[in-house]
Specification:
Blueprint: H1 2-6, H2 8-21, E1 33-37, H3 40-53, E2 61-64, E3 77-83, H4 89-100, E4 104-109, H5 112-121, E5 124-127, H6 138-151, H7 159-188, E6 192-198, H8 202-216, E7 220-225, H9 232-235, E8 243-249, H10 255-268, E9 275-279, H11 285-307, H12 315-326
Parallel strand pairs: 1-2, 1-3, 3-4, 4-5, 6-7, 6-8, 8-9
Protein name: Bifunctional phosphoglucose/phosphomannose isomerase
Family: Belongs to the PGI/PMI family.
Keywords: Isomerase
Length: 328
């Protein structure tokens, strides 16, 4: 896992090459809306890409995390199924339902039943390298989602240029990122972590929480500013030094959200001694998002090492899948 995290910038470059060489059939039809369906490490890319496209896309891009797709899905909907293994049962069922509703279905996967479905039905799909934990291969699904959206005439940022520049930036900054991540991990050791993000970084905050869960075996939650100001902020009256607050920020944040984030840090600090504000770095929105992802991955790695836990261990998920398989 340590090697996979370190290789994130190289993975981005490799993913760009895969995207450039992918052969997608032109469907000659622009969708009226988009649904990206996927879960866990396979699905988080959809949440982050949807956030990044919010300022450019002229049609809605929604994210789905379950077995069913919304009833509004139809012939004018592009549904992108993202399953690293190709065997995620929720994503497979959602894909089948999308086809039943007449949607345009495309897929990002390394193989499995989703690859078989795509080939059998002649669906557009992009294959990515397999054999690793899904959470360690975010770079590949992230880039391919942009490629598919772009091919279906969904307005996206200049993802090729921005990702290539971001990869180079992350390589140049990696030693600094590792050092900063270690300092943050030391502050977060033995804490329950509340990860907050300004609007536009909600998917990144979820990624941080997922990495704390899987890599460091730590509980926590994530939320977005300003939504959490209308409910969760009150809950900090029950806070303590056992809980840490991390606030992810960016120069892209709304000026009023910036003010709220400043005030939140001060208010939360009345109930816990650990409030950490982290500002994204980079010359574009995509670069700033990828910087935070890389930093968060390294923090989870350091926390795992400090706890002495097995970063690769996901036995509880495997046990759950086995029980579900028995119930078929």
């Amino acid at each position: 896992m340590k090697d996979l995290i370190k290789e994130f910038p190289k993975q981005l470059k490799s993913a760009l090459k895969i995207a450039e060489e992918a052969k997608l059939r032109h469907v000659g039809k622009r969708p009226a809306n988009v649904l990206i369906t996927g879960l866990g490490g396979s699905g988080i890319g959809g949440s982050i890409v949807a956030d990044l496209c919010a300022q450019t896309a002229r049609i809605p891009i929604a994210v789905n995390k379950g077995y069913n797709v919304p009833h509004w899905v139809g012939a004018d909907t592009l549904v992108v199924a993202s399953s690293y293994s190709g065997n995620t049962e929720e994503t497979l069922e959602a894909s089948a339902q999308a086809l039943e509703y007449g949607a345009m279905l495309a897929a990002v996967t390394s193989g499995g039943k989703l690859k078989e479905l795509a080939k059998e039905r002649g669906l557009n799909h992009i294959l990515i390298p397999g054999g690793n934990p899904p959470r360690s291969m975010l770079a590949y699904s992230f880039v391919q989602l942009f490629r598919i959206l772009s091919d279906y005439s969904v307005h996206t940022p200049d993802y090729q240029t921005e990702i290539a520049e971001a990869a180079a930036f992350l390589e140049s900054e990696q030693e600094n990122i590792i050092a900063e991540a270690k300092q943050y991990a030391e502050a977060l050791e033995n804490k329950v972590i509340a990860t907050y993000a300004v609007n536009g970084l909600g998917g990144v905050a979820t990624r941080w929480r997922q990495q704390f869960n899987e890599n460091a075996k730590m509980l926590g939650w994530d939320s977005v500013i300003p939504e959490m100001n209308h409910n969760e902020l009150v809950g900090w009256a029950g806070g303590s030094d056992e809980i840490a607050a991390v606030i992810l920020r960016s120069e892209d944040e709304h000026e009023r959200v910036a003010m709220r984030a400043d005030l939140n840090a001060k208010l939360i600090a009345e109930y816990t001694s650990t409030v950490i504000e982290i500002r994204a770095k980079g010359n574009s929105p995509i670069a700033r998002v990828l910087y935070l992802i890389h930093l968060g991955d390294y923090i989870s790695l350091h926390l795992s090492e400090m706890k002495g836990c097995d970063i690769m261990d996901i036995r509880v998920i495997e046990e759950l899948k086995a029980k579900l398989e028995e119930a078929h």
